[in-house]
Specification:
The complex is a heterodimer.
Chain A: H1 2-27, E1 50-52, H2 68-72, E2 78-81, H3 90-102, E3 116-120, H4 129-133, E4 139-141, E5 156-158, H5 159-168
Antiparallel strand pairs in A: 1-4, 2-3, 3-5
Chain B: H1 6-40, H2 56-66, H3 77-95, H4 112-120, H5 122-133, H6 137-168, H7 173-178, H8 188-191, H9 193-206, H10 218-221, H11 231-256, H12 267-288, H13 294-325
Helix pairs in contact in B: 1-2, 1-11, 1-12, 2-11, 3-4, 3-5, 3-11, 5-6, 6-9, 6-13, 9-11, 9-13, 11-12
The chains are: A alpha+beta, B mainly alpha.
């Protein structure tokens, strides 16, 4: 009986404690920001869609077209199209034949960066497996939080084209959505 | 002009003032509730329309007025449209006997308390009609809950009010206020703290406010009794809820917190301040406590509030008789 009364009293007191907690939160500063006018300070840490890391020459990807990313991708959203070897000029053909005659292995002059790097953002789950499997660190996430589009095709990118456009528009807002959406559907 | 009796003029002015203030209170309370809720959850609340969003409820009201009124098939048309009107009209009457200041009363009757208690019972009827006429299972469940809850919570409410009426020796709210003094230790809450507690908890139950908002429990019954109401049908229920809150808080102020009595400031200011404080407490309670289960709700009432209220009443009666004898 006495014990029950004591529990009741402590239970009632817990109601007061609850009100005090509410009061504390009421007086605490707000944690939300008025978004369209003011963004959160750490918006740069946003994990957006993939992009190719630029090599030393701007507009040229660091990528070596090995295809490990496409192989590792669990959602099959990457397609790497390798460059075809350029048609050798007559002199080169001659040099090639000479080298073959000498028994040397001819050096492949084909540039390693991909011709196309097709990325379907509608399938991507942003898991980062492609980045982990890339031997040269040629992929990264963008901080772009404002990507939006009107159709599915707006999210099919050719990342090589995106990179080229970015190099051309250096200094322009990075967060702008890449407009090089290549429709392939 | 002399043809109009002064008393009629008094009542008409009072009614207009009450009608205007009910509308204003509704708008202000919607804003206050949303703003306080926002700050408690550490977000700003409405801030877009007008300074700090004060005009937001006005926009909402305009939106509600402009909306089409729907009635579900199979609903009882008369009862369905009668219910919101019935919810709102008695509220105007409840405001009449409230003593805002010394002599500042729309209707000076010596049974003001009785009038309020009697007509506040109509709120249950409107909720029942709304739920029943909607032809909706959630509406019906909400209505059933409302009846069980309001009937139960009316009893301790009445008993706690009765205890104060014993002490004051009057059912006239103005008389009860006059019986109390200027300072907080002269107020009835000092002699009747338990009655105040019971009154406040029962008032939460009577006005269907959280944590006792079971008739409209949105997570269980979508919106309970007003699920099927659109536009101003819903608007009237909404307005009536806030107006009812003001009435119970005003009665609590008059009975327990000395009404318009207070130092320095004029009477009506004190009255409004005390009522606002109680309203704020109600809003805080809503955002602090989780909704109780229905059996818990009835246990609180029948096992705790009712016996306590009866004991309090008996003790009060005993001491009142004792002081009369001596």
């Amino acid at each position: 009986m006495i014990k029950e009364a004591l529990t009741t009293m402590s239970d009632l007191w817990s109601l007061m404690v609850g009100l005090r907690v509410t009061k504390t939160y009421f007086l605490d500063p707000q944690v939300t920001v008025r978004y369209p006018w003011k963004a959160v300070s750490n918006i740069g840490s946003f994990k957006g869609h993939l992009e190719l890391v630029s090599a030393k020459t701007p507009g040229k990807a660091k990528c070596i077209s090995c295809g490990m990313c496409a192989l590792a991708c669990p959602s099959n959203c990457l397609t790497v199209v390798k460059r075809k070897a350029p048609k050798p000029t007559p002199e080169e053909e001659q040099a090639l034949a000479e080298a073959k005659a000498k028994g040397e292995k001819p050096k492949d002059k084909t540039p390693k960066d991909p011709e196309k790097f097709l990325y379907d953002y509608t399938l991507c789950s942003l898991c980062g497996t492609c980045m982990e499997n890339c031997p040269v660190g040629a992929l990264s996430f963008t901080g772009s939080a404002y990507l939006a589009g009107y159709s599915r095709n707006d999210f099919h990118f050719d990342l090589v084209q995106v990179l080229k456009n970015q190099a051309g528009l250096e200094g322009v807002d990075q967060s702008a959505a890449p407009e090089a959406g290549q429709s392939e559907a | 002009m002399s043809a109009i009796p002064a008393e009629l003029l008094h009542i008409i002015i009072g009614l207009v003032a009450v009608a205007a203030s009910v509308g204003l209170i509704g708008l202000v309370m919607v804003w206050v509730e949303r703003k306080v809720a926002g700050h408690i959850q550490r977000r700003p609340g409405p801030f877009e329309v007008g300074p700090s969003g004060v005009l937001q409820p006005l926009c909402d009201a305009l939106k509600l007025v402009g909306k089409q009124l729907f009635m579900p098939t199979g609903a009882d048309p008369i009862l369905f449209w009668l219910a919101p009107v019935l919810a709102f009209l008695p509220v105007l009457l409840l405001f009449l006997p409230l003593p805002v200041g010394d002599g500042l009363q729309a209707l000076d009757v010596n049974l003001g308390l009785l009038l309020i208690l009697a007509f506040s019972g109509l709120a249950v009827l409107s909720v029942l009609l709304a739920g029943w006429a909607s032809n909706n299972k959630y509406g019906l469940l909400g209505a059933a809950r409302a009846v069980a809850q309001s009937v139960a919570y009316e009893i301790p409410l009445l008993l706690s009010v009765l205890a104060v009426a014993f002490v004051a020796g009057s059912l006239d709210l103005a008389q009860v206020v006059k019986g109390q003094g200027t300072w907080p230790w002269n107020w009835n809450i000092m002699t009747q703290p338990l009655a105040f507690l019971i009154y406040f908890v029962s008032a939460l139950g009577e006005t269907n406010r959280a944590p006792f908002d079971l008739p409209e429990a949105e997570s269980e019954l979508t919106a309970g009794f007003h699920t099927e109401y659109s536009g101003m049908g819903f608007g009237l229920f909404f307005l009536a809820e806030y107006a009812n809150m003001v009435v119970v808080c005003s009665v609590a102020t008059a009975l327990f917190l000395g009404g318009w009595q207070g130092p320095v400031l004029p009477g009506p200011v004190w009255f409004v301040l005390k009522v606002s404080a109680l309203m704020l407490l109600m809003v805080f309670a809503r955002w602090t406590y989780p909704r109780v289960r229905f059996d818990q709700l009835l246990v609180i009432n029948w096992k705790w509030l009712l016996p306590l209220a009866v004991a309090n009443l008996l003790l009060t009666a005993f001491f009142v008789k004792l002081t009369q004898l001596s």
